[in-house]
Specification:
Blueprint lengths: L8 E5 L4 H12 L3 E6 L2 H11 L3 E5 L5 H15 L4 E4 L15 H11 L1 H16 L3 E7 L10 H21 L5 E7 L5 H8 L5 H4 L4 H4 L4 H13 L4 E4 L4 H20 L1 H27 L7
Parallel strand pairs: 1-2, 1-4, 2-3, 4-5, 5-6, 6-7
Helix pairs in contact: 1-10, 3-5, 4-6, 5-6
């Protein structure tokens, strides 16, 4: 059964910019009332003003379970109900190997991208169940491509995929639905910082066919997302050209992992990432001994 968004309430986390804002706008264009949740109140308010009438901004940190529940309660009080929730908030680490990345950075990515999605689900669940609504969890093609250099991001997105699959089954007896959206490369600030501004990070993506790594706009991603919500789709892949890879992952990935592990460019990338991490640790250690701030690279 399709979900008509006209007159419904949609809550989107991480919605002050990028895909989240584009999704909120696409929902509002269909007549939905929208709650924009983001870390900073002024950013959330600015996004809500950009969307227009029927939108409100709320400050919320997805790593703060109690605060998030409070934001959902405020949205429900404002609009009377919450029908659809999009767990979109996410961050990306700077490229590094598992051994080179600071454990605190690894933990931070999981705290936002995986545990933050779980916290959003907990806050949303009473509302979505009450209104036979829909939960949409944001994953990525990194749920099924090799996450070399950005392993905590890939780990989190694979975890989100499994959480979404479980929720799809667990919500069904109550007339509610859940789905997962997988984004490829979208032209957002996060992708720009992660790839365009870090020459090491683009080595692995350069090995993929260009038609897979070609970027779509946040508006295209948001429109695909909302169309998936309207269909109560279990899976939405944007752009759709990643669908074939997703379907064949069980056959393709074991072969690609073997090829990638021995590929000269990837071997050089791993060594370069570890060398950079080692240099940064030495510089930080030296600065701490001298009692001065470490210079940025």
């Amino acid at each position: 059964m399709n979900l008509d968004l006209n007159g419904r309430t949609v809550v989107v986390t991480g919605a002050a910019r990028g895909i989240g804002l584009a999704t909120a706008k696409a929902a509002a264009a269909r007549g939905a009332r929208v709650a924009v949740l983001d870390l900073r109140q002024d950013d959330a308010d600015a996004a809500a003003a950009e969307i227009g009438d029927g939108a409100i901004g709320l400050a919320a940190d997805v790593t703060d379970r109690d605060g998030l529940a409070g934001a959902f309660a405020a949205a429900a009080a404002q609009f009377g109900a919450i029908d659809v929730v999009v767990a979109n908030a996410g961050i990306a680490p700077r490229a590094a190997t598992v051994q080179g990345m600071e454990p605190a950075e690894f933990d931070r990515v999981l705290a936002v991208n995986l545990h933050g999605v779980y916290n959003t689900v907990l806050a949303a669940m009473p509302h979505v169940l009450k209104n036979s609504g829909h939960l949409l969890l944001t994953s990525s093609v990194y749920a099924f491509v090799n996450g070399v250099g950005v392993s905590p991001y890939a780990v989190a997105k694979a975890g989100v995929e499994q959480l979404g699959r479980a929720l799809r089954v667990e919500l069904a007896p109550y007339g509610a639905t859940a789905g997962v959206v997988y984004y490829g490369f979208v032209d957002t600030r996060m992708v720009e910082v992660g790839f365009d501004e870090d020459p090491l990070a683009s080595v692995v993506t350069d090995l993929l066919p260009s038609f897979l790594t070609a970027r779509i706009t946040p508006e295209q991603a948001g429109e695909s997302t909302v169309r998936g919500i309207e269909r109560r789709a279990a899976r939405t892949i944007a752009p759709a050209r990643w669908t074939g890879y997703s379907l064949l992952r069980g056959l393709v990935n074991p072969v690609l992992d073997v090829i990638t592990a021995g590929h000269r460019s990837v071997v050089e990338l791993v060594r370069a990432l570890d060398a950079r991490s080692d240099a940064e640790r030495r510089r930080t250690s030296a600065a701490e001994r001298l009692g001065v701030p470490a210079a940025a690279e």
